[in-house]
Amino acid sequence: MGQAIFVIYILGFYGLRTATGDYAGWNDRQVITGHVAGDDVGNVVFALHVLLAAVMTASGVLQLIPALRRRFPAFHRWNGRVFLALAVTMALSGLWATWVRGSYLSIISGLSVSLNGVLILIFAAQTIRHAVARRIAVHEVWAMRLFMVASGVWFFRVGIMAWVILNQGPRGNNETLTGPADIGLSLSSYLLPLAAYEIYRAGKRTKSASLRLAVMVLVAALTLVTLIGVGGAAAFMWLPALTTPQ
């Protein structure tokens, strides 16, 4: 649900402005460097990066639906290839935007985004390697890891809103994303989901009832925090951007 709202926001905000030629309208508070007059290459890369993010997000969500995997295996395979190709493209374009275009608020935030991009590239390579070798079970594990880190931008926005709501305001945050909470949320946006997935896998393998219960409680807590963050992001970030007149 949260990723579907994110896709609607991307298409409704950036897609509409791109289609109508309102490139300056890209420059809302949710991007660091959007449209820059005279920077044709950077503007094209930004547009592709943002709009393809909607396709990648929708593609990734479709990969997680069991009924689609069972009833339409060919679609699952080709959709997975689309997701993987877009994840790699997004990682490379994100690294380019960060260090060539200078689209970062601080070195710390730039390094965090770069680590996210590097992990996407590594996990994508492992996903492909095991698929080619027909190690399907291992391939699926790496594909899920890829999904977690490729969703870092989404998790970051959800995490910030959950943090602000639960703390009744921004605590440890600042405009340059160098506050202790900013640094923690930035790294947690991909490392925490990744760790949660590994803990979930361990919980499935263990025979200990107490450990299974602990994992269940953790997953329930993370689900609740995610729900709070999705509600906050939808109410205060994504939907208002769609209803504000151009």
UniProtKB/TrEMBL annotation:
The chain crosses the membrane at residues 45-68, 80-99, 105-125, 146-166, 178-199, 211-239. The keyword 4Fe-4S does not apply. InterPro entries: DUF2306_membrane (IPR018750). Keywords: Membrane, Transmembrane, Transmembrane helix. This is DUF2306 domain-containing protein. It comes from Hyphococcus luteus.
